[in-house]
C-alpha cells in the first residue's frame, strides 16, 4: 500500500506538477482510503518527499546496474555520459525538479529536501567517478566530474519543456572527447 | 505602470513561486488598480510571461554591457564563465525557473514560454561565442559552447536551494582551463 501511494504521488508530480498534486488525488489514484493514507503520511510534504526518495533510490539502483552493462574501451566515457544524460532526463527527474523548485519557497519542504539532495548528490558523484575510472587525487579531476553532473542536470532541465535528445547526445559526445583527454593526463 | 506591474510580478515569483503569485497580490504590490492591471494583462499567464521577458531582456542588456568590461588576456575565459555563472544564479533565473517548471504542466503557458526561451537561448549563445572569441566553424566548438551554457544552467539550478558560490567558482575555473586548451586547438 505504501508503494502504491508513492508511485501515484510521483505520477501526479510528473503529470500535474507540485501545485496540482493533492493528497486527495493521490489516495484516489492509489486506490487507498484517506484514513490509511493519513496513517502512513500525515501531510502532503511527507508524501512527496517520501515519494521522490523512493523513486530516486530505485532509479539509483537501476543506474548502478546499468553501469555494470556498459562497454569498456574507447566508447566507455561516451556511454557513461549518455547513461547519465538519459537518467537526468527521465520523468523521475521531472518529479524531483517539481519538489526542488517548490522547496525554494517552502522552508518546511526545504528542510526535508536538502538532506535527500545532498545524499543523492554524493551517491551519484561516487558512481560517476567509479564508472569513469577517474582519479580524484589528480588536480582538477574532481571539478570536472562535478561539472559533468551539473551539465547533465542542466541538460535535464532543458529536456523538461522540449525534446532535446539529439542536441543532448551531440553535446555529451563532445564532452566525452574532452573528458577522455583530461582524465588521461 | 506597466513596468511597476512587471517588477512586482518578478519579485513575487522569486519570493513565493509560480503557485504563490496571484494577480491580486501583484496589483497590491505594484499599487495599481485591478482594472488598470486587467487592461494591460488580462490573465496571470500574460503577466508572468511579460514579466520574465521584461527582466530577461534587461538582464541580457546588462550581460552585454558586462562583457565590455571583462579583462582580455589569460584570465578572460575564467572571467566570462564567472559572469555567466553569476547571471544564471541570480534571482531573475529563479523567476524564469518558476515559469519554466510551471510551463511543463500547463500547455497554454508552454506555448508562450517556448518562443521566449528559444530566443533568449540563441542570444545568450551568440553573446557567449563572441565573449570567448570562439570559432564555431571548428569541429566540436559549437558543442562545447552549448555545454558551457547547459553547465551554467545546471549550476543555476543548484544555487536555487543552497549557496553554491564557492563550489561554482572552482568548477568554472577548472572548466575555463579546459576550454582555453580546446578553443586554442
From TrEMBL, chains A, B:
Single GO term (MF): transcription cis-regulatory region binding
Keywords, alphabetical: DNA-binding
Domain HTH tetR-type: 1-59
Positions of the DNA-binding region: 22-41
Gene3D superfamilies: Tetracycline Repressor, domain 2 (1.10.357.10)
Pfam family, one: TetR_N
InterPro entries: Homeodomain-like_sf, HTH-type_TetR-like_transc_reg, HTH_TetR
Protein name, as recorded: TetR/AcrR family transcriptional regulator
Phylogenetic lineage: Bacteria, Bacillati, Actinomycetota, Actinomycetes, Propionibacteriales
